[in-house]
Design goal:
This protein has 3 helices and 13 strands. It is an alpha+beta fold. Strands 2-4-7-8-9-12 form a 6-stranded antiparallel barrel. Strands 1-13 form a two-stranded antiparallel sheet. β8 and β9 form a beta hairpin. The longest helix has 17 residues. The protein is elongated, with a radius of gyration of 26 Å. It starts with a helix and ends with a strand.
Length: 162
């Protein structure tokens, strides 16, 4: 009888070691830019900002790198601004399981200087070719500063870890 009682008391603690924890699809993940990103960049250094937990168990640790997809156009002549879009693709759980991300991206556009370029082109058109004056003025660079936080990112798949 004592052995049965001892087994009944110890069984839950042994089972907790083998218990699985599931992070539901649609869970919110906060992300932070670890470095400044400009419109001429082709990569972004983004990390998970806060631990993602289910109960007391950490599923995704803060500081875990995030795979991103960066698209953009460089600033150009005639006052055309640079454009930058960073989409968040995936990250990893504490056990290495791939966690796909959805619904999150950040877009920025630099300052448009077309008016200045046209004004210089017309103003200097008396003295030089207006086309050359327009080309001299470039639009602003699109920038996402270091430390920028985003909380509109969700998990796209259910993740079960031990």
């Amino acid at each position: 009888m004592k052995k049965l009682l001892l087994l009944a008391c110890l069984l839950p603690s042994f089972m907790s070691n083998f218990a699985q924890t599931t992070l539901k699809s649609g869970s919110i993940v906060s992300l932070r830019f670890a470095e400044e990103v400009k419109s001429n960049s082709n990569a972004a250094n983004v990390v998970v900002a806060n631990d993602v937990k289910v109960g007391d168990k950490i599923i995704i640790s803060a500081g875990t790198p995030v795979q991103t997809q960066v698209t953009g156009t460089k600033r150009r002549g005639c006052g055309r601004a640079g454009v930058l879009n960073v989409a968040f693709v995936s990250t990893r759980a504490t056990d290495g399981t791939l966690v796909n991300l959805m619904g999150g991206s950040i877009s920025r556009e630099g300052k448009n200087k077309k008016g200045l370029a046209i004004g210089l082109g017309v103003g200097l058109g008396v003295f030089a070719w207006p086309f050359l004056a327009c080309l001299a003025v470039k639009g602003g660079e699109a920038v996402i500063p270091e430390g920028t936080l985003t909380t509109n990112v969700l998990t796209a798949n259910e993740v079960t870890i031990k």
